[in-house]
Amino acid sequence: MRIRQSLLSISVGLCLSATSLTFAADPALDTQAEVQGVPVTELRVFAEVMERIRATYIDDVDDKQLLESAIRGMLYELDPHSNYLTPDEFDDLQVTTSGEFGGLGIEVTLENGFVKVVSPIDDTPASKAGINAGDLILKINQTFVKGLSLNEAIELLRGKIGSEVELSILAAGDQKPRNVILKRDRILIRSVRHEVLEPGYGYLRVTQFQSQSGRDTEKALKALLANGDLHGLVLDLRNNPGGVLSAAVQISDLFLNDGLIVYTQGRDEDSRTNYAATQGDLLNGLPIVVLVNAGSASASEIVAGALQDQERAIIVGQRTFGKGSVQTILPLHDNRALKLTTARYYTPNGRTIQAEGIIPDILTEVAKVELATDEAYIREANLRGHLENTQNADKEAAVKEAPLAVRDYALYEALSILKGVHLANRKITAAAHTAAQKNDASAPIKKDKQ
Fold first, then answer.
1. CA 289/CA 45 separation, integer angstroms
2. Domain spanning 100-188: which CATH class is it, in words?
3. 10 Å Cβ neighbour count for 273?
4. Which CATH number is 192-329+343-363 given?
5. Which of 41, 18, 16, 46 is nearest to 30 (CA)?
6. Which one, of 354, 358, 360, lies nearest residue 323 by Cα?
7. Pairing of the two strands 325-331 and 337-346
8. What does the pLDDT look like over 391-429, one tens digit per residue?
9. What's phi and psi for 443, nearest 5 deg?
10. Which amino acids are annotated catalytic?
């Protein structure tokens, strides 16, 4: 059997770096190599398979393409989050963490051979088309995704801004997929936004953890505090796919005075890294409700887990995605890189959420509220012969925004919980003040001896 020496050198180099090894027919040399930890048989098979593909595959495939495919295959077999990044993919990753990129605005992972939506990004083609966390993508244009690697599927999803792509989407609970046509757009992610839900109750939404998200969150909190007397905050991490670990640590630190936020543990015992909070809770202990769902992943789970373990916030919603691993970007030559899983992260109490997720303190079902129409009730105006109202002849009432319970029931529930906590705290404080006053009044009056 003829095996090219060049291919052998390449395959050996992939596994042995500077170690030299000659593939001879001498069994003694093979045995010596096996003792040294070199998988001679597997390397020989690798080179043989590569040669057979080059010689007999229906299309002509060059060595570069085969070797890159082999590298991707190595990483694909490790876990869903380890990837080999070409120069274009490496650039895309760097652009994504900065907050601007082109595409559909969708975070995906690979599950059972299908592309699964982790979360759509707010105000993007994917979110506007009604794509939700948990949806499966069965086809991209006319290509079935079954059998594709995650990188291959992502390449099909990408394209020029303004170009269209047709997706076959199977939503949870549906029997048949639906087809959705999306137009690719430049995705500008404003990772942090805030508003006042009601006087005294703030809302902070973090859509993704980017390099500047910690700074932007601090600015948003200070703006809410400057807006008036704040009684509590809803922190919305729903459908947040994660992002930069440092941003998750910085945002958690804004609500804590001390203690552990998260720690990572690699393969070696001495590889543990602790991330601790520093003095300076911006809200000074005000109640916080954190909203999460199945689309809350990675860095979102770090924040939720830290605030839950430190009993700083009430976590409300559904069980989170469960991505408890840390990926490190390892640059290679020629502007390539590896995105490699190097550690697991743990909450302050030592919980790993890998494949488990964060269990909310208060579980809520996904629900939709609809207002009953006037036709559902009998009113004076429905009675035969009722007196007409001579005022307000113009019956065209101003269109009002739908109530919060209709627009976002989960947020409505979070706000109700926040109000309840504030009311309970106020009553406890008032009761303690009253008890202190009674104690002072009943205390015996001490007279100075003359």
1. 56
2. mainly beta
3. 13
4. 3.90.226.10
5. 41
6. 354
7. antiparallel
8. 654 444 444 467 888 889 999 999 999 999 999 998 898
9. -70, 140
10. 298, 309, 323
